[in-house]
Structures are given as structure tokens and as C-alpha cells.
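Researcher: Here's the sequence for the chain we discussed earlier.
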Amino acid sequence: MAVYRLDEELWFPDPHSGEEDGLVAIGGDLSVNRLLLAYSNGFFPWFSFRNLREPHWYCPLDRFVILPKEIHISHSMKQLMNQNKYVVTFNQYFDGVIRGCASVNNRHQENGAWLGPDIIKAYTELHSQGYAASVEVWELQHISPVKKEVKLVGGLYGVAIRNAFFGESMFSLVPNASKLALISLAKFLDSKGGHFIDCQFETPHLKSMGGRHISYDEYIEILNSVGSKY
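Model: Thanks. This is the structure I predict for it:
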């Protein structure tokens, strides 16, 4: 097992030689070109922005994904969706979503927090170039009988390239907002022929939504099966 040091050249090592937890490389930068190369090969940056000065790159060989057709929608979520209490949009407020993910429940103040200024800047640039996307969940608020407003109450963001969506983070200010965002994303990807949502790591929340494990080799085979991004 080895951890490689990246330099100014754009490259990534074979992930099969990385650490057991998926750490493969350290260093490099968060430029658009490096991030696109990373995600195209199953890598993603993950590091404590207060404690570490340079990116740490992970590429687990055991991948946890949600296939769009397999998204699990519970009875309670179906009831919530039928209430039309929330409006879901795509790519309407990327900045609000990524900052919401960073700050909800004071995440940014926690020891080990990873969604810091450099990450926000890098993914905002990815978004401006069409490679990062957001899903917003808005709550309808009735100001008066004739006036309605919406408030951002949840969402998620990630990288959209080829035939996959690489989820980075999600947040909720009200119960189930992030679940609604994930379900909406899965339905959209299914309608467009998308093959998977990369969840990076398993969590009980994502497992309950239909997430499952596939091998890195299968993951790369799927990822390389279609050359166009959404």
C-alpha cells in the first residue's frame, strides 16, 4: 500500500495501490482540469481544510452508489411529495446550496470539516463551466392570500460528467428536504439515461434510499460506457 505525492503535472496513480481506506494521493491543486481528471477516474478530494494544507485524494475500491431506477421512495416520502409543499429546481442557486451544505448545523466549525473556502471556490468554478450541478428544495410560504414566496430549505450538489452524478454533500433545514432532492435527482437521471449516483461512502441514510456496493472495476466500466456529460 502506498500514498503518492502529486506534482504540477495532471496525473493520478493506480488506485489499486492505495491505502485500505481509499486514500491514494496527496498534493496537486483543485483546478478544473485536475478535478475533471480525478472524477473521470473515480477520485475525489476529501481533507480537513483547517488541519491540512493540501488536497488528499481518495478512490475507494468498494464503491457505494445509487442506481437511479433503484431509488427507494418510502410511503411517508410519497405522502410528502403529494402534498406539493416543496418545489424542486435544478441549478437555480448553486451558491446557496454549497454554502448551505457547508454551514448547516455549524458543520464548518466542526473539527475535521472539509467544505472550506478553497473547496467552495473550486466547485463554484466547476459549476460555472457546466461540470457541477445543484438540486434545490424550496418551501412555499404564503405571505398573504395573493402573495407567495419560496425559501431554500435543502438541497445537494455534486459533479456531473459522462453518465454519472458524483454527490458531494447535501443539507436539510426541514425534515426530509435532502431526501426529496436525492429522489428528484434520481428521477431526472433515470429520464436522461444516467447510470449511477456516486455516494462516495456508505451511510445509513443513503443505504435506506437504495444505495449498494459495486466494485471499482464495475464502476469504471459503467463510467466509461458513455462519453457525454449531462
